[in-house]
Amino acid sequence: MSFTPELALALLLIIPMVAAILIPLAGKQPNIRETITLAAGGALLATVIYLCKEVAAGGRPELLLGTFAGNFEVKFKLEPLGATFAAIASSLWIVNSVFTLGYMRGNKEKNQTRFYTFVAIAIASAMGIAASANLITLFIFYEALTISTFPLVSHKGDAKARRGLTIYALVLMGTSLALLLPAIIGTHVIAGTTEFQVGGVFPPGTSLLATSILLFLFAFGIAKAALMPTHPWLPNAMVAPTPVSALLHAVAVVKAGVFTMLKVVVFTFGPALTAETPASTTISWIAAISIVLASVIALRQDNLKARLAYSTVSQLSYITLGAMLAAPAAIIGGGLQIVMHAWGKITLFMCAGAIYTVAHRAEISKLDGLGRTMPWVFGAFLIGSISIIGIPPFGGSWPKFFLMAGALESGKGILIAALIASSILNIIYLIPVAIRGFMKPPADAAADAAIAIERKKHIWVIVPPVFTAAGTLVLFFYAGGIIDFLKPILPGGLS
After folding, report:
1. Residues in a beta bridge with 68
2. Most exposed among 13, 165, 280, 357, judged by the fewest C-beta atoms under 10 Å?
3. How far apart are CA 136 and CA 185, in angstroms?
4. Helix, strand or coil for residue 393?
């Protein structure tokens, strides 16, 4: 049997699901279990690269998975935005798996087999979201992703984990059923289809009141995008182990949310209709407020993971803002932010996990002098921070440039103020972490000396963030290729 794009689409689900079956069978042999995870990651990435080449050449591979209730199709069709998300999730699954190996063993975490199993299922769900050809398919895999991460968020099994899971489940499932599902049904009723199409699916003359209502339902029903006030699930999910935090923030969950937000605007509403719909202006302002307010809240967090969680709420709203501005530059900026934020934020979370694994410190106030003992980790944190802030020559600078251009292009230049304020606040709450580590004297020199010896045992939590930090530099120089890859999602291209 020849290897075809249709087979490759099927493998997006088959590879991680086969891993999810094999991992429990090898549960008593950790080395084999983790080899299965890494081999599946490599196979999935190779498959995604093959599909990306097909899409870059103009192909739009399709695969019908099944039908139900008459003519509702569960179908895959890959286009540039979906291929970009698939590339992020598949590549960072490998990196996160290497980090997970070091973290789970280093902290002697329980239920490691269950953990690896559900991560594989979550990745399969993310692949389904990336390749969805219509809103029905996307909704199915969107919910599968939520459910598959329940055991990951509650991994610790204590009262805090149970409380975090309760909030996580109530917000994500509640918004999906009360807002997102009605939005999909409303789209089908008005447009007569749930298929994704370049330029949107609503017929000319569709009521702007109706599209405004639907846009509001989508914006707050896609709670994985963490637009305020649907964001509380995200900081509460930080009770999970750091590899879960990295998975939530960079690899799958929140990226699935903002990807869905951008995909709905581009392929369901279309940029032109979105720009005309009054709700887009209101949601733009809500996104701008979320950008600034979440950054202010981040300033007040001493726990490093909590600070990074609120930083993510802010950074995700960049993508919602870009979608609602609906100008070509803003949409490209949103697509770039999905990529650049993933690499920058996974770096920061893995650094936090490395610090906890080696030094058992979680509060920023206790990091004084630790950078001298863990220079590679704190150096990676500094680089990741600079990328998140948006300073060249790191990848995070490009999304802000395009979003600012898009704000001017859409006639909403005042919203640039939110992006500038965010960058300033990013500097205030991220850079001091590295300054404390490198510049302040250690509070306990003897303890730090012991940490210097201990870190040699934990190389697998140190290498991954250094790798992704380097990736933020490489991505700066390859942003042009990503932009060219994404251009076809715009009806008129990018001028």
Report:
1. 72
2. 13
3. 9
4. coil
Q: What angle do CA 147, 240, 116 make, to 5 degrees?
A: 65
Q: How much is the pLDDT for 237?
A: 83
Tokens of 382: 């500094």
Whose CA is closest to 221, among 314, 330, 135, 292?
Answer: 135
- Cα(117)–Cα(380) distance, integer angstroms: 29
Could you give the C-alpha distances from 154 to 68, 99, 166, 310, in angstroms and in order? Answer: 33, 19, 9, 20
Over residues 292-313, the pLDDT tens digits come to: 999 999 999 999 999 999 999 9
DSSP H helical ranges for 132-277: 135-148, 150-153, 159-175, 181-191, 208-221, 233-236, 242-246, 253-264, 271-276
What is d(CA 488, CA 467) in angstroms, rounded to the nearest whole number?
Answer: 30
Contact 278, 208 (CB under 8 A): yes
Helix (H), strand (E) at residue 50? helix 30-56
Residue 149 DSSP label: T
pLDDT of residue 359: 87
pTM above 0.85, yes or no: yes
Q: What does the pLDDT look like over 313-360, one tens digit per residue?
A: 999 999 999 999 999 999 999 999 999 999 999 999 999 999 998 888
CA distance 353 to 304: 10
pLDDT > 90 fraction of the chain, expressed in percent and rounded: 79
Q: Give the 3-state secondary structure of 285-335.
A: HHHHHHHHHHHHHHHCCCEHHHHHHHHHHHHHHHHHHHHHHCCHHHHHHHH
User: Which residue's structure tokens are 């879960």?
Assistant: 244
Q: What would the DSSP string read from start to end of 101-130?
A: HHHHHHTT-S-HHHHHHHHHHHHHHHHHHH
Residue 276 is which amino acid? E
> What whole-number distance in Å separates Cα of residue 390 and Cα of residue 406?
16
Largest pairwise CA distance in the chain = 73
When pLDDT is cut at 50, 70 and 90, the band that residue 1 belongs to is low
